[in-house]
Amino acid sequence: MTTTSPQGRTELLRPDGSPVRVLVVDDEPSITELLSMALRYEGWQIRSAGDGTGAVQTAREFRPDAVVLDMMLPDMDGLTVLGRLRRELPDVPVLFLTAKDAVEDRIAGLTAGGDDYVTKPFSLEEVVARLRGLIRRSGAADRRSDSVLVVGDLTLDEDSHEVSRAGEGIHLTATEFELLRFLMRNPRRVLSKAQILDRVWSYDFGGQANVVELYISYLRRKIDAGREPMIHTRRGAGYLIKPAAS
Amino acid sequence: MTTTSPQGRTELLRPDGSPVRVLVVDDEPSITELLSMALRYEGWQIRSAGDGTGAVQTAREFRPDAVVLDMMLPDMDGLTVLGRLRRELPDVPVLFLTAKDAVEDRIAGLTAGGDDYVTKPFSLEEVVARLRGLIRRSGAADRRSDSVLVVGDLTLDEDSHEVSRAGEGIHLTATEFELLRFLMRNPRRVLSKAQILDRVWSYDFGGQANVVELYISYLRRKIDAGREPMIHTRRGAGYLIKPAAS
DNA sequence: CTACAACCTGTGATTTTCCTGAGAAACGCA
DNA sequence: TGCGTTTCTCAGGAAAATCACAGGTTGTAG
Fold it and tell me: In CATH, what class is B148-241?
């Protein structure tokens, strides 16, 4: 089931209307903090654990709809944790967190069962998007929820990564796509450059804050070119997207 | 009976609409785990057993529509297990798992009865495809479900392994065929290189991830050569296939 | 009206990602 | 066993994406 919050955000709900529950497992408190805040902001209920033992215990009583699991835990191997989690919750989808270079060599089968992974350092939008996808496909959320965002005559498909305005297909790069997704998930709402940087770029991004301006510029060229603009600047506050009409 | 899931995937169902039931028997927990995950993702109901005794017991009460059976079990010979299974479930199709160098004459004899086998290490796509075939032919699922995948003017027959585009036959190697099948079972959906590797290559593949790029390249040469391309790269995300039209 | 801050965007360097040719190794089959 | 086919590694090159920098433009406070 999906519902639309007063701010215009669309959020996932379980079939009975209660909020989605997510368990976050990582040994670095800064990471669990970061993720917990971001996921709570989605309207989800979050619990966290710092090791495998805690993860299995918490899973048993919390019964989450999805798990975010760091592959590198102090007390046990990632796959061992996975096995024990599966014994408790056979159908729960898992989003693995893994180091960039670890994904190259050894861990096969991460996506075999419909699970997914992101590499550290990740962007919050990426984690949220993948979690939404996992939850949607697992059937924990209502099936009517689909993967297409619509604002005015602009549509963005999270599965096929296709974007079109007024029926015309538009090619976006990965970063442009994530930025647009973030804007479209918060239509008519002003998002500050800091917010955008925090959500769309990886948490360790150390560059200049004006990349946001740059990418807004790119997006405008592709989305608004020769049309009624949908992306607007609120000087001193940030940016927002809204249907061209109003 | 077949139905189309929210993801656009087509899944097998029994005539009464309930999910297909599959029993997985292997003594290595990592194998039963991997298979259970992958088969559950097909929308099937899975039980697993680690030895012959457990297999027969579980079969008795679970009454699966198909069985995946490792021929090398700790407590009894594969043929013995098969015999006892047959006593419980005379008509259930069995997919044998066997080591590559195992005596294939015995297996060959067994598969005459409509059963099938794959050698370890297998790819998940291969197991799923063969299971689908077995279930379809056994009549446990609706017969109308056929074995031909179609995307645009491209068709792939899972039974005869024939592929053609715009009526013109195309010869593919085994790996190319499995890759194309995976793409075609998920049309218009971006599949990451990791996903492709996990499903199409054997679970013990330890090589470079760029084999995927290589085989995509091979496929393009055969499928898209001189035509409107159907296989598309989403840089930084993966690949997808879709009809040439859109 | 002016001056400043905020924002926009062209240019190009750097990095990342992807494609594909060549050849080695493994495989299948006669 | 020998030969053709298939699979895969390696590496060079092409293409695309990302980002810093800097000069230009616009909005706004005073």
Answer: mainly alpha
